[in-house]
Specification:
By secondary structure, this protein is α+β, with helices and mostly antiparallel strands. The protein folds into three domains: 226 residues, Rossmann fold (3-Layer(aba) Sandwich), CATH 3.40.50; 99 residues, no CATH class; 100 residues, no CATH class. Helix content is 26%, strand content 32%. Strands 1, 17, 18, 19, 20, 21, 22, 23 and 24 form a nine-stranded mixed beta sheet that branches. Strands 9, 10, 11, 12, 13, 14, 15 and 16 form an eight-stranded antiparallel beta sheet that branches. Strand 10 and strand 11 form a beta hairpin. The longest helix has 19 residues. The N terminus is likely disordered.
């Protein structure tokens, strides 16, 4: 089982740009985005995607090809490149089918609009995108250009039913008014609406990724020998990656298992990178001043309470920060500039009420879920405690153990966490060493005392909203990046 470092992470922000977080691209049916910032990520490579269920006839001949392009949403340079690519496929290779990261009913409504003289339908769809990354004039212009220059384009939407209460409901009425209730189009519209309802009800990202695969297969296979181009957020188009939350293989990863040499994927994220800083500032960290190259801001519209984030690179800072413990992760593809190993970054998040907070990241050259990533550091390191403050009796799996309590330690290195409580459970290792292990690991640097091999610990995260998250951890002496760590225990 693949382990994941236990982060209280800004994974929502980590997926805003390149990786195409669903709420960032498509808001919920009521146009209110309820995305929360804090999340605990579970990575388990035993989780499977839908690909394994559909690969039954590996000898079937596939003549059509799939050309996927990973984007950062709403970036004009990338949209221009996609139009250039589609122009070549359309004009020189006879392609007509364009797969897009929209719901089935949205794409079919766009197909109706392609035959209309006015833009009333597009305007309606666009207005329903308000509060999302798709609500941008350059996105609207992208579709208008396709209508004008490539009028025989047929859109295929393979995402779950985002905006099912607005665009989905309106398209359903359109079908009913045109006596199309007994058609496959109506059936698939209802299917997409139900997918959207389930996804938003359960907030199930693995379900969404798997449905994107299932929907893609359905749409592609019915074309028989046709080749297609697809435009999706970069997290969905990486052959090697898991989905952004590490639960199932990404859409392209699963499709590669099925279509093998008939599928191609390319990232267009490089087109948005800023090569030179816009300015150079001075930022002080722990009493030392650093030159900080500023690379601009990215919009966080559509994310609850957040407006934007800004990026700086601290020059000649890596040696000062290389030994700091870390709690957060942000893949390279979220940055507006190129990333190299041995660099330090400042990312400042600004909320809609103008309050802001900073996270400091460093690039060690490591990957997370198949993506090269930077890791957020605990600048206000956990205070060290020499001795426990009390001794308690704690029950684990029905047995009482004496446990040394090290206190309620303030820790605000990440948004939403007020403090952390720690216990060392005495004489529990032999009883629990064969207990099932979970998916989390916690590095030694994130404890207020020295952890030791063959010991059991308890940590309790106390969040600012009053909720708590408690984990039982065991230390078997294993190392991660030359640091001893603890692993989660699955206990009652």
């Amino acid at each position: 089982m693949k382990k994941s470092i236990l982060f209280i992470m800004f994974v929502v922000f980590a997926s805003v740009l390149f990786s195409c977080n669903d709420e960032g691209l498509n808001s919920n049916p009521n146009q209110e985005n309820n995305t929360e910032i804090n999340s605990v990520v579970v990575v388990d490579e035993t989780d499977k995607g839908i690909a394994e269920e559909v690969i039954e006839d590996e000898t079937a001949e596939i003549k059509g090809n799939i050309y996927l392009y990973g984007e950062m949403h709403g970036v004009e340079a990338i949209l221009d490149k996609e139009l250039e690519l589609w122009s070549d496929y359309y004009q020189n290779h006879g392609m007509r089918h364009l797969f897009i990261e929209l719901s089935y009913f949205t794409a079919e409504y766009l197909n109706v609009w392609m035959q209309e003289e006015d833009d009333e339908i597009l305007d309606s769809i666009y207005n329903n995108w308000k509060g999302t990354q798709s609500y941008s004039e350059v996105v609207s212009d992208f579709y208008k250009t396709i209508k004008e220059d490539f009028p025989e384009t047929i859109f295929h939407g393979t995402d779950v039913g985002h905006q099912y209460g607005t665009t989905g409901a309106r398209f359903r009425v359109y079908l009913m008014n045109n006596d199309l209730e007994d058609t496959e189009m109506y059936e698939l519209t209802i299917n997409a609406i139900n997918q959207g309802k389930k996804y938003y009800k359960d907030n199930d990202h693995a379900y969404r990724e798997n449905m994107m695969v299932e929907n893609f297969i359905r749409e592609f296979d019915k074309l028989e020998n046709e080749s297609v181009m697809g435009v999706y957020g970069g997290a969905h188009t990486d052959f090697e990656a898991m989905d952004y939350y590490g639960l199932v293989p990404s859409m392209a990863n699963q499709l590669k298992d099925i279509y093998q040499d008939n599928i191609y994927s390319e990232s267009l994220g490089y087109l948005s990178l800023v090569q030179e800083p816009l300015s150079v500032d001075i930022i002080e960290v722990e009493g030392k001043e650093y030159e900080a190259s500023y690379f601009g801001r990215s919009d966080l519209t559509g994310f609850k309470d957040y407006a934007y984030r800004e990026f700086w690179r601290l020059e000649n800072a890596y040696d000062d920060f290389k030994d700091y413990s870390f709690w957060d992760v942000l893949p390279y593809n979220n940055y507006p500039m190129p990333i190299e190993v041995g660099q330090v970054f400042v990312v400042e998040y600004t909320k809609t009420d103008d309050s802001s907070s900073r996270i400091y990241y460093r690039s060690d050259g490591y990957s997370w879920n198949g993506l090269l990533s930077t890791f957020g550091m605990s600048i206000d390191n956990i205070s060290k405690v020499e001795e426990p403050v009390s001794r308690e009796v704690i029950a684990i799996d029905g047995k009482d153990y004496e446990a040394d309590y090290y206190g309620d330690i303030k820790f605000k290195a990440f948004i939403g966490c007020e403090s952390i409580e720690y216990w060392k459970v005495n004489n529990a290792y032999e009883d629990l060493k064969n207990t099932s292990k979970g998916d989390y690991m916690l590095l030694s640097a994130n404890y207020p005392f020295e952890i030791e091999k063959e010991n059991v610990y308890i940590i309790n995260f106390k969040m600012t909203d009053g909720t708590t998250m408690k984990f039982h951890m065991i230390c078997d002496g294993e190392m991660y990046n030359e640091k001893i760590y603890t692993t989660e225990l699955v206990v009652e």
